[in-house]
Hints:
This protein has helices at 157-166, 187-195, and strands at 4-11, 16-23, 28-30, 49-54, 64-68, 76-78, 99-106, 117-118, 134-138, 154-155, 170-173, 198-201, 211-216, 227-229, 233-236. It is mainly β.
Amino acid sequence: MTTTVTTVTTTNKTTATNMTITMTPRALIDITPAITPDIAVWPGDTPVSREVLCTIEGGATITLSTLRATVHLGAHADGANHYGAGAASIDAMPLARYLGPCHVIDAPVARREGGSRVGVGDIRLDIAAIRHPRVLLRTGTFPDFTRWNSDFAGLEPALVDALADRGVTLIGIDTPSVDVQESKDLAAHKRFLARDVSILEGLRLAHVAPGEYELIALPLPLVGFDASPVRAVLRSLA
Length: 238
Ligand SMILES: [Zn+2]
C-alpha cells in the first residue's frame, strides 16, 4: 500500500494556511451491482428507466434526466415497514447500522427449486467468533444481476435469531431477499422485525474474500418509503 502526501494551500481574506494531508488510501471494494435498464427486479416490480429531459449534445445547457424504478433496486436497504405494518420507514431506520465493521461470511448452499434457506450450520464462521454487529452472507445463489433466477437462497429464521442473540443488528445477503421467492409467510423477515435487525439485500459479493471489513451502505432519507437503494462498499479495517 502506498502513502500519498498532498500539500493543500487554502487562502481566504484573513488567513493563509498550509495544511499537509497524509493519506494512506484504503482500497474500496464495490459490492453494488451496476444499475442499468438490464438489472433484474422482483417479478412484477418496477424496472429501471431513465427519461432524458434534455442533453448538452442536443443543444441544451445541461443534461437532465429522471429515474423511475422500484426502491428495492440492486443493493438496497429495506425499511421495516416493508414487512411490518406501522414499522419504521427507511428514513427512520438507525443510520449507524449501515456503516462500520462487518464480517463477510461464506454460506454456501445449493441452488434448488423453491430455494434453500441458510441455517446456522451452513455459515462458515462460528457464531461465537462474530465480534462485529454487521454480517454479510455470501451464498452464491444469485450469480447474475441481469438474469433473474427464482431458486436463490433465503435465511432460516433460526439463523436470524442466533445472530441477533450474538448482538448482530444488520444482516446483508447476496440475493434479492432474506426469504425464498415463493415464501408466503416471510418467516425470515418476521424474525428481523421481531428482533429489530436491519436488512441489506442484493449485494454483489462473488469477488469478495470472506473476512472482516468496514461496510459503508447508507440508505437515502426517503421519507415514508419501504426501502432505499444503497451504494455498498467495503474497505479494509484501519
Ligand atoms: Zn427489499
